[in-house]
Structures are given as C-alpha cells and as structure tokens.
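Memo to structure team: turn this sequence into structure tokens by end of day. - J.P.
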Amino acid sequence: MREEVDERTKQQVMQEERAEQREANERKAPSGKVLYRTTLQEGEMELRRPSAALFWSGLAAGLSMGLSMIAEALLTAYLPEAAWRPLVATFGYSMGFLVVILARQQLFTENTLTPILPLLQNKDLATLRNVLRLWAVVLAANLTGGLLMALVAAHTSAFDENVRAEFFRLGEHAMQYGFGTTLLRGILAGWVIALMVWLLPFAETARVWVIILMTYVVGIAHFSHVIAGSIEVFTLAAAGRASWPAVVFDFVLPALLGNILGGVTLVAVLNHAQVVAGNEVE
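Reply from structure team:
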C-alpha cells in the first residue's frame, strides 16, 4: 500500500515538473534559429506567389501608404502650433504601415528581408531571378498606388487647403536633402523597417505597438522611406512645385538604394550570418 502511495506521489511530481517545463518553454523568448526559420519560410512563400497576385497586393499597399501622409498632415493641420506638435503629429506617419502590415499587403521595404533569406541559403541564379521579379513587381505596384494617391491629394478638393499645404510641406522637407544624405537616411529607414519585420512573427499582442513605435522612429527622425516619402514628393511634383526628374533622382533613387542597403546588409545578411556562425541552420 505504501509503495502505491509513493508511486502516485512520484508520478504527480513528474507531472508537475513537466507542466513547469512546458510553461517555461512558452515563456522563453524564441531563439535566433526560430526567428530565422519563421522568416525564411515566409520568404519562400512570397517567392512562390505569382506576379499578378504580388502586383495587386502591392498596388493596395501603395494606396494604403498614402494614409501615412494624410494622417500626419491632418494632425499637423489641426493641432495647435507648439514645440510638441511634431512629436504628436508623427504618430500619423504610422497609419499607412499599420494598415499595410495588418492587412498583409505587399510593401517593398518588407521584402528587403524576407525573400533575401532564401537567396542567402540557396545561393543560386534561379532564386536571385525570383527575388528580382518580386522586387520589380512590388516596387512598381507600390509606386503606382502612391502616384494615384498623390494625384488625388494634389488635384482634387478632397482635402481642405490647410491640409493640402501640409502635404506640400512634407514633400518639400523630404526633398531638402542631397543625394548622399537621402541615401544615408534611406539606409537607416531600411534598417529599422527590416528590424520591425524580423520582430513581428513573435510580437503577438504587442504587434501593433511594435509597428507604431518602429515606424514612429522612421517618421520623427525623417529617415527616407522610398514608398512613404515618394507619395509626399509625388504630391509636390503633381502640384507643379517640383520637377519630376528632381523628384526621381534627388529622392526616389537614393531612398530606394538606401532602403535596399539597410534592409539587406544590416538585417538580412547579419542575421543570416549569426545563425550560420552558430551552426544553427541545417
């Protein structure tokens, strides 16, 4: 009888230990390998998507990113003029990113991380061509959607004059830097956005706050994001306040190069290297 009691006690203790271990595993932060595998699988899925699906999703993302300019301009226009106004108004910059990411739309700067991991692992021309296909389709779709939003902002009466004035101010601010400075600010923007994408798979209930805070940093620091910024400068050009060649060569091109460099080298390559160096990739 005593042996049966001891056996039941032993089993109960073992069950409690297993339950504690399960709870510990659930509470433990995911390893670099888990983050890598999750992002790698997402990248492989994106590379399998047909170009038509990528284009329509990218077009939707370009239109949605217009909300960043609209929300920031609205907050700036209707908040009282004070030193703290930019700190509050910049939260509007996060609006477009929230919609795009939560709706799973295709944004070019997210794709400087996810499809690059399969390329770094496979190291073949077929994957490189597929990555370039995805980039070309998504970038063209994002810029097309952004251009449509810029034309609406510049040429319709959808917004009050004080709000339209803020659209132009945002575009002028984005255009004020030279090629080199825009390139550098683009690298920082690409780095922050790719870091955000790296964090999101296990952000869980903090997902919205991760998006808001990371993109807020991009906005308040005036880092050059090729899609969000292009909508601002396209609006300026559509209103005749800047030439189209200046917009393309002084902002879009350096911001694009910077975003690619920041996302690919500072996040994708470094995170791939740290996992490979730890012999964690099979």
